[in-house]
Every structure is written in C-alpha cells, then in structure tokens.
Amino acid sequence: MEIYSTEEQQVEALKRFWKEYGVSIIGGAALGLGGLFGWNAWQDHQQSQQEAASAAFAELMQNTSSTEQMQAAAETFRTEHNEAGYNALVDLMQARVAVDSGDLSKAETLLKDAVAKLDSSTRPLAQLRLARVQAAQEELAAAQATLAAIDNEAFAALRDELKGDLLKQQGDLEGARAAYESAMQAGGAMASPALQLKLDGLAQAS
C-alpha cells in the first residue's frame, strides 16, 4: 500500500480517489438507503397485513349464526388473506362444521389440507381429527396409517388411545389392550379419564 508522507500528497490522493470513485460511492449509498427504506416499507406492509388477517380471523371465529354464513365467511377470508397458517385453521373450522352437518367426505378433504399446511407442533391435532373421521367412514386402514404418521411424542397418549379404539373396532382385543397400555404409560389417564375404563372393559371381555 502506498504511504503518503505529507498532507499535500494525502489531499491530492483524496482528490484523485473522489474523481474516480465519487459517483459510484454516491450511487451505492443511494441504492443502499433506497433498499433500506424499501425494506422498512415492506416490513410495515407485512405487519399491517398480519394485523388485518388477525382481526378478520377473530371476526370469522365469532361468525356462528349459521353453517352457510360461516362457510361463506371462511371462503371470503381465504380470498382476502391467503396465508398458510390461517388457512390451515380455517380448514379445521370448516372440517368441524362439515362433521356436524354429516359431510364426512368433505371433512376428510379439509383435514388432509390442514395436515399438509401445519408444522410438526400442531399437525398432530389435525391428524387425530382426520383419523377419527376416517374411522367413522369405516376407512380403518387409512385411519391407522394417519395415526402411524404422528411422530410428536407430546401426542403419543392420544394417538395410542385412538389406535386402541380402532383395533377394538376391528375385533383385535389384544392389540387394543397393548395400545391402551401404551397410552397409559405415556400419561394418557391424566388427559383421558375414560382410558382406564376402556382397559377395564377389555379385561371383562376377555
């Protein structure tokens, strides 16, 4: 690196540097500031969009005047706020309404959509509901496959209890007993007081 021994040399070097690179520096700074302001504006826009989606979802949750109105409001929400997280919650809401109205096929489709959108911490909620809907349609193999895909151990007790229900429904009492016992070991008795009754019932049936 060249070392300047006098102030005059340093001043002349600065002049030459500015003449060669000054425009580029100013342009770069302008682009940098523009990018910063653009980023901040984008962040503000995202924040406002999220707040609007949150308010709209809260309103949707309160829209229980009728099934038809709730379904229409849900579709409007999807159009105006196309966000995967909220859409998954709307799937769950509409699936519940579909079950209440007896449309299990629609509920199954909605729950599969929710499963695909949710992360590993919340996906098991949709998977458990999906397995119940599949079982109600006598799709027992599909329900068992759905339960087998739940790998979040926080839901192990609920998963194994429902697995026991399915096996009992198929007449596999030994398999059901093993599943219920597994649910008990995972703390299922605390979440489901009926679990012990199910085990006792199997003992009486043996």
From TrEMBL:
It is a single-pass type II membrane protein. Belongs to the YfgM family. The keyword Signal does not apply. It is found in: Cell membrane. The keyword rRNA-binding does not apply. The lineage of its organism: Bacteria, Pseudomonadati, Pseudomonadota, Gammaproteobacteria, Alteromonadales. Residues 15-203 form the Ancillary SecYEG translocon subunit/Cell division coordinator CpoB TPR domain. This is Ancillary SecYEG translocon subunit. It comes from Ferrimonas gelatinilytica. It holds the Pfam family TPR_21. The chain crosses the membrane at residues 21-42. Keywords: Cell membrane, Chaperone, Membrane, Transmembrane, Transmembrane helix.
